[in-house]
Amino acid sequence: MKSLLTLALASVLASSAQAAENLTAETASPGGSIHLSMVHLAEIAAEKGIANIQVADGQTLTNSVQNVAEGKTDIAGTPYILPFLLAKGRGPYSKLGPEKGAELASNLRALYPVTLGIFALYAYDSKGVKGWSDLEGRSIYNGPPRGAAVTNARAVIQLTTGLKEGDGYKGVQVNWGQAVKTITDGSADAVVLPILFPDSRITQALASGSMTVWSVPKEKFESDPFQKYLRAPGSAPFTLPASDATLGEAGVTLVTEDGTFRGLATIGGDIVSKNMSFDLAKALTKAHIDTLDRLKSKAPFARHAGYGIVDVVKSGMCGPNPLKYHAGAVAAWEEAGFKIEDCAKPE
């Protein structure tokens, strides 16, 4: 009897300890898929007694990734290009160098993937832009001053038009918090940024006039250089029937040549430290999987945000991407009937 009471007490204490676990998390500004996935996780983790997650949004994800790698933050949203750059000690992590960067990047593990957005060209009709072939000599808002978005936008523009920033067009960069203002105040002739369907920035900008959104032309999208870039870390091909590519508002026109929207998707996910316990990582991932339908119902764009898609190509895993899933996450996905390729599993 004493033994049974001891076991029961231990079980209660273990459950209480799990429910009482406090975690910190960092994510992007509200309105996007990576923010939605994190606040949803915080909600369901508390609801299911897994953990209390304190979410700080509006963060610079470059810093958030490093914070997780250094053990300063428990969970962070990220485009997958950032763990790759950290592993190489490049770009925003160049001051760390390759050796320290690789050491830190080896600490990171993914729970689940998220499509952050799909790059497209758009402009106010009043600007007279006729499409991708009409960008030479124009000013283009293509992201914040540094980070994955501006890097990808420059690549998409060059691959689609052959134009380089500073030579064929003038790049305009401002932080995400000023994005809508920059779109609406006429600072740029056109915009090349990741969008969702529908897209919050476009929806807000429509108050200032009608707009047109252009898909990447099929010929360019299927070219060898573009296809090669689609396999870069944190990138994936994205296609969607134009009939499903809802931008949600009157006043916006989507232009495709054959009824299919094509673009480069920025792929990321919510990541943790490899030192997070197996049980906690599994419980968090299982909660995400079990409530996918609920997550997809929380915002109009959520059904095309890659939630629940672990295919290695569409989810941006393997290949040059050094990031692996946490072992607990692998267990959760596989127990739910999803296939996780060996190349995406931790060693």
Describe this structure in words.
This protein is of the alpha/beta class. It has two domains: 2-115 and 268-344, Periplasmic binding protein-like II (D-Maltodextrin-Binding Protein, domain 2); 116-266, D-Maltodextrin-Binding Protein, domain 2, CATH 3.40.190.10. 35% of the residues lie in helices and 22% in strands. The chain has 13 helices and twelve strands. The chain has helices spanning 2-19, 33-47, 61-69, 81-88, 97-105, 148-161, 179-184, 200-205, 218-221, 224-229, 278-290, 292-296, 327-335; strands spanning 22-26, 52-56, 75-79, 108-124, 139-141, 170-172, 190-195, 211-214, 235-241, 252-255, 260-273, 324-325. Strands 1, 2, 3, 4, 5, 6, 7, 8, 9, 10, 11 and 12 form a twelve-stranded mixed beta sheet that branches. Strand 5 (139-141), helix 6 (148-161) and strand 6 form a beta-alpha-beta unit. Helix 4 (81-88) crosses helix 5 and helix 11 (278-290) runs parallel beside helix 13 (327-335). The radius of gyration is 21 Å and the shape is globular. The protein starts with a helix and ends in a 12-residue tail after the last helix. Residues 1-18 have low confidence and may be disordered.
